[in-house]
Amino acid sequence: MGLSMIALRSRRVPSSADPHPAIGKLAASSPTALPASSRFVQPHPKGYCPRIADRRAAPIPKAELHLHIEGTLEPELALEVADRNRLPLPYADAAELRARYRFHNLQSFLDVYFETMAVLRTEEDFADLASGYLNRARAQGVRHAEIFFDPQAHIERGVPMATVIDGLWSVLAASEERYGISTRLIMCFLRDRSPVSAMEALESALPYRDRIVAVGLDSAEVGHPPSEFVELFDRARREGFRCVAHAGEEGPPSYIWEALDLLRVARIDHGNRCLEDPALVARLRAERVPLTVCPLSNVRLGAVGRMADHPLPEMIDAGLLVTVNSDDPAYFGGYIDDNYRLIQRDLGIDDAQLLQLAGNSFRAAFLSDAERARYLKELEEYSPAGR
Ligand SMILES: [Zn+2]
Asked: Tens digit of pLDDT for each residue in 226-257?
């Protein structure tokens, strides 16, 4: 929706010309997702220098800045938690639940998303959710994660704010030692609920201010512009929170303008539709506003028809500060490094651009200067030029 209207320059390398036989095979068998294992090591033709995504023994060090913790609820864990809480889901097994993950827009995804997360009730459930994500994120090269959570979706089911935050925090507090991943929490408000409900959630989170770095705005975008939440974000800023907001995923460029001017956000989540407005692109570029782009999510929710049509190359060429993220990876067929691999495979993103995207992820993160410098040095040492 919207993005499909943009005239995009396809950079897809025809699979017949693809020098990597494994990639060509994957492209033929699956238009978007890598296989669950993402391990497709095959011998390379003599003299061929494989791309960094394929030859690296370890994934690129990176930060994940757009990740909904409820969107990491894998079917296996959902069924386990449902059983533990005696809230059986109407699915025989994980495969049957996963088979429901066919979406045609954001709303069709949100319906399944909210239904499945309803199994989460206890601190243990939220702790299991966090440790499940961090385990996968570690394997995908994530060194720093800024994690969204949706308190209203739990509060309205009778789960107290304390249960959600204490459960997540029981894992996040030790994530650097246990998983080698520093973390921040970002509390998102559901824009399709009332601003009053969001303000109540904000107030109930104030005792946990030291655990939450920022507030965000998510859920069904169209018809719920940022301008409805000015008072809420003003209050959040006065309370010391940084601000981010989803804008320009399905909603028009005007929502991005509003997020910048009215909510005064530090980052735009998604933001793809900025490309429809040259003046907006110029502003985002001039002010170095980071965009947290989620390629697999955009394909799975129908914002773009196929990965080869994704506007990421145009966003990079426009000089925007773009990062790549996984959004709701349990539902969209891949975690963050799977996104990195797919944009190389289908969009012609070269090694230097991939390393630039990873660097952007640290530059755009809510890190201290010392942390940022440490991670950028790690990335420099990882890159071929740094060796
Ligand atoms: Zn999102």
From this structure: 999 999 999 999 999 999 999 999 999 999 99
Crossing angle of helices 161-172 and 123-139, in 10° steps, is 40
Residues found in the chain: 387
Predicted pLDDT of residue 288: 98
3-state SS track over 244-256: EEEECCCCCHHHH
Burial label, 376 (beta-carbon count in 10 A; 0-12, 13-18, 19+): middle
Low-confidence ranges of the chain (pLDDT < 50): 1-49
For residue 39, the model assigns a pLDDT of 30
Q: What is the pTM of this model?
A: 0.86
- pLDDT at residue 72 in the model: 98
Catalytic residue of the set 64, 70, 221, 249:
249
Instruction: Reply yes or no on domain 58-74+100-382 having CATH 3.20.170.30.
Output: no
Domain ranges of the chain: 58-74+100-382
CA of 153 to the centre of ligand 1 (A): 14
In the prediction, which pLDDT does 43 show? Answer: 35
Q: Where are the alpha helices (DSSP H) in the chain?
A: 21-29, 52-55, 75-84, 94-98, 106-117, 123-139, 151-155, 161-172, 175-179, 195-205, 230-238, 253-261, 278-286, 295-300, 312-317, 329-332, 336-347, 351-363, 369-382
What tokens does 122 get? 């206890």
Element spanning 146, H or E: strand 142-149
Only one residue has tokens 């502003």, namely 283
How many angstroms does the Cα of residue 66 sit away from the middle of ligand 1?
6
Q: How far is the CA of 293 from the centre of ligand 1 (A)?
A: 9
Burial of 4 (0-12, 13-18, 19+ CB in 10 A): exposed
Q: Which helix (H) or strand (E) holds 268?
A: strand 267-270
